[in-house]
Design a protein that fits this description.
This protein has 3 domains: 56 residues, no CATH class; 91 residues, no CATH class; 91 residues, no CATH class. Helices cover 37% and strands 14% of the residues. A 4-stranded antiparallel β-sheet has the order 3-4-5-6. It has a two-stranded antiparallel sheet with strand order 1-2. A two-stranded parallel ribbon has the order 7-8. A hairpin with a 2-residue loop joins β1 and β2. The longest helix has 25 residues. The radius of gyration is 23 Å and the shape is flat. This is Reverse transcriptase Ty1/copia-type domain-containing protein. It holds the Pfam family RVT_2.
Length: 287
């Protein structure tokens, strides 16, 4: 890194290098040094890599998997299927105990694996794919139909992807909580604490890159009780059974590293990662 604004990032995959950054001089100097040291071939700007298409623009980068999506649809004979508006029904409840015949495990796992790779640029299918992934051990034709429904959804949204604006950092994750909670408030509180820990880590990482954040990181929560619990330094009956480490959020708020704000559930964009949504709510601002 040279100065406060110049960054060079190098990705290594087996014997391939991907170089990116915001300083042309650093980029050219590194490329020249590597070419002199090793026998390498410059294939130019990256536009397609491991099934991911990259379109560089003046205001940022757009990544998608349109070509890979078409390959997946063709592989499972769904290239001519009728598209639908949501990947999974809102009231859909899957179970291991269904009265339908078994399906070939290899076929089902191949479909799920292909869909999981698509989540690299399609977080809108993350919940649905994670849901059907629970039934790979003994899948049935019922589970296979649910998985193919996701293919029908991506058939109608084949050109979607993620747009990264210039000079913007973006990270997301979705996983089950490691503990059993006794209420919705407690579940939200634990989730917020986990988010705060990740935010603090990102702030520290950006600081190492000389991008210091003076303002508090905004954490949006759609549960007022969890917000009240996070801001209240006094332990009482509602929180005395919660593990002490989950109260880390209170210290972060006191230091003004983060700020917890309320957001209505209908405006909580993170819901797309955690639950099935109706078609009118299934909106993502891709650009």
């Amino acid at each position: 890194m040279n100065g406060k604004c110049d960054i060079l990032i190098v990705y290594l995959y087996v014997d391939d290098l991907i170089i990116t950054g915001n300083c042309v001089k650093m980029f050219n100097d590194f490329k020249k040094e590597m070419t002199n040291e090793f026998e390498m071939t410059d294939i130019g700007l990256m536009s397609y890599y491991l099934g991911i298409e990259v379109k560089q623009r003046d205001d940022g980068i757009f990544i998608s998997q349109e070509a890979y999506t078409k390959e997946v649809l063709k592989r499972f004979n769904m290239e001519n299927c009728n598209p639908i508006s949501i990947p999974i029904e809102v009231e859909k409840k899957l179970s291991r105990h269904v009265k339908e015949g078994p399906i070939d495990r290899t076929l089902f796992r191949s479909l799920v694996g292909s869909l999981r790779y698509l989540t690299c640029t399609r977080p809108d299918i993350l919940y649905a794919v994670g849901y059907i992934s629970r039934y790979m051990e003994n899948p049935t034709t019922y589970h296979f139909k649910v998985a193919k429904r996701i293919l029908r959804y991506i058939k109608g949204t084949i050109d979607l992807g993620i747009f990264y604006p210039a000079s913007a950092a973006f990270t997301w994750t979705s996983k089950k909580q490691p503990i059993v909670t006794l209420s919705t408030c407690e579940a939200e509180y634990v989730a917020v604490t986990s988010t705060v820990c990740h935010a603090i880590w990102l702030r520290s990482l950006l600081k190492e890159l000389s991008f210091i954040q003076d303002e508090s990181t905004q954490i949006y929560v759609d549960n007022k009780s969890a917000i009240t619990l996070a801001k209240n330094p006094v332990f009482h009956d509602r929180s005395k059974h919660i593990d002490t480490r989950y109260h880390f959020i209170r210290e972060s708020i006191a230091k003004k590293e983060v700020q917890v704000k309320f957001v209505k559930s209908k405006d909580q964009v993170a819901n797309i990662f955690t639950k099935p949504l109706a078609s009118k709510s299934y909106r993502v601002d891709w650009e």
